[in-house]
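for the writeup, i need someone to sanity check this before i put it in the appendix. the sequnce is what the collaborator sent (i think, or maybe the updated version? ugh). structure was predicted straight from it, no edits. if anything looks off just tell me and ill rerun, i have time this weekend
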Amino acid sequence: MTALSFAAAVGGTLVGIIGFAMSYSTLAKVALSWGFSSELAPWFPVGVDASIIAFLALDLYLIRKDTPWPVLRLAAHAMTAATIWFNASSQGQITDDPVQAASHGVMPFLFVIGVEAARRLFIKKTQLEAGTATDRIPLHRWILSPIATPRFYRRMRLHGIASYPEMIRRQQELTGYEQWLKRKYHGDLSKASDDEKLPMKMAAHGYTVSEALALPEQQEREAEKRKEEAERRRLDAETRRKVAQKKAEAEELEADGELEAVRARVDGQKAEARARARAQAGAAERAAELEEQAMETALVAEARAREAEALRKEAQEREAQAAADVRAAELERQAAEKRKAAAEADRVAAAEDQAVETATMAEARRRAAEADQAAAETEKAAAEARRHAAEAERRAAEEAERQAAADARTQEARQREAEAEKAAAEKRLAAAEIERRAVEIEDAAKLTPRERAVRRVARMILTAGGEPDQVLLADIQRELAVSSTDTASKYRQEAAELLREGYQP
């Protein structure tokens, strides 16, 4: 095969070269005889022969790219025919010497035959590589079966059956099946079912016996598959509809949540403003009440002090009276003792003067003296009791005075506490006013929630004295409603940096 291919290539090339060389000289002379100038006449055969080569080469290229265009082949053949005609008629009338005319025109014809052979081989090779090569029906079949062969050829070409043996096998299979069916129903094919008749009906459409018999089951499977696909699409559509509905509900809930959040924020701001106003009013009222209570307590303390002073003076007067009573009792005791002594002297004198008195009279005098003595002792005990009472009243007066002093100190402490509470209320009022102005400024500046939080922490630091460490992270978490200590620490650091930059609320 290699030698044959080499011989064909070399021979075809020599034929082409010789043919074009002979044609070139002949066509150049014809061009001169037709009136072409000596400069253009040599280019005429080049144009004719080059067009043949170009058209055939382009036709083979398009075949290789599987985009053949028959116009190129026809154009090449037309130019070849023109070359043959020009060469044959270059020696005069063709009918005058047909042999001479044929000798001049045979070489281009041979070149075209060689190109057509190469084209056929090229096309076959391309079809084999692409898998589209088609077998030809042998000539003897056309001769031996001239009626059935056209139908046979039609089925091959219409249904893309490239293999002639494959088509023979299909025909034999169909004939064998038909004979089996006749044997099954004793020659009456009308008894066969529609499914059993499918191979005969579908053979004209390119189906094999097995493909035709499997067609009902395949169609049922495809119908079931289409049904399942339709059901799947329906379920997918239902799922998408539900998903869209849930998504719409979620978006609606999210919008409601955002609206509620805005309302809550507005309500919170309103409540905060009202709370600040109530706090301010309450602080003012509390300060007034504390001031009034302080004044009342001061008045009460002053009244109690005056009362204690009166009690103290009364106790002193009672003590003086008790002392006077004690001195009177002492004088009375001394007088009683003197009377006792005088009585004793009288008794002695009487005893001496009246020695004759009876014992009864002496006893009576004794008893009288004893009674006087008992009276004097009773008077002395009463004076002692009055002295003790005066001492107790003095001590009570001193205790009342100490209580009054304690009440006065308590009242002073309450007054200082009221003043401190008033100062704290004023401080809270000033802080609330600062907070309100800061919130208004932040609202006007449209700050982000983080910037607002940082500024709020900065105001807490200013309220605590300006030192960031004095503000506890727990207080920041409570005020800003954050759960992370790290976030609170970052807020405090950013607030400290903001204060170092000169932030003033």
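The mean pLDDT is 75. The two ends are 103 Å apart (CA to CA).
thx in advance!!
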